[in-house]
Amino acid sequence: MLHIFKEGKKGAPVFVVLHGTGGTEHDLIPLAEMLNDEYSILSIRGNVREGGMNRYFKRHGEGQYDLEDLEFRGQELLDFIKDSAEKYGFKTEDAIPIGFSNGSNIAINMMLREEADFKKALLFAPLYPVDLSDNKKDLSGAEVFLSLGKGDPIVPEDESERVVEIFKERGADVHHTWVNGHSLPQEVAEEAKNWLNR
Description:
CATH class: Alpha Beta
Shape: globular
Helix content: 25-40%
Radius of gyration: 15 Å
Order of helices and strands: EEHEEEEEHEHEEHEH
CATH topology: Rossmann fold
Mean pLDDT: 97
Largest sheet: 7 strands, mixed
Low-confidence stretches: none
């Protein structure tokens, strides 16, 4: 997968950076550097194209996921992160997903897999309208920062609240905050930084 790896301080965690629809692996590197400039960065471009835009998985329409493709792409991305951990010399449990929108959604898919061992994640503008009645993943011991949108044209408020519940029901320690719309404003980036480095 197309990616950028920026080495940080030896032994520091690694941000796994996942852009939104139409983004590239360059978009969120400034955010990652601002959150903690000592961490390494693995920023990955989505492998799927939709109308010329990069994404991490296919969909049939806004909020209508191609579940088969989501399943395949989530595994593909997780495998790539594991391979990158070997290549660049870090542990997958030290990897911290940072996602915006589509990047957040694929991060949720990975975190809900039994073999995933992420301990922290920062997810901005997530949406996960997937039936999880069969998913029993234990996320106690994981810490998650969620930024959700009031009046978000893409993610209804009840769907944002559902993302909070997905993590809480599985025992994760969840900090969530609200912004206006489908956005990632500077003040929420600052809040995420304070949460991460507290």
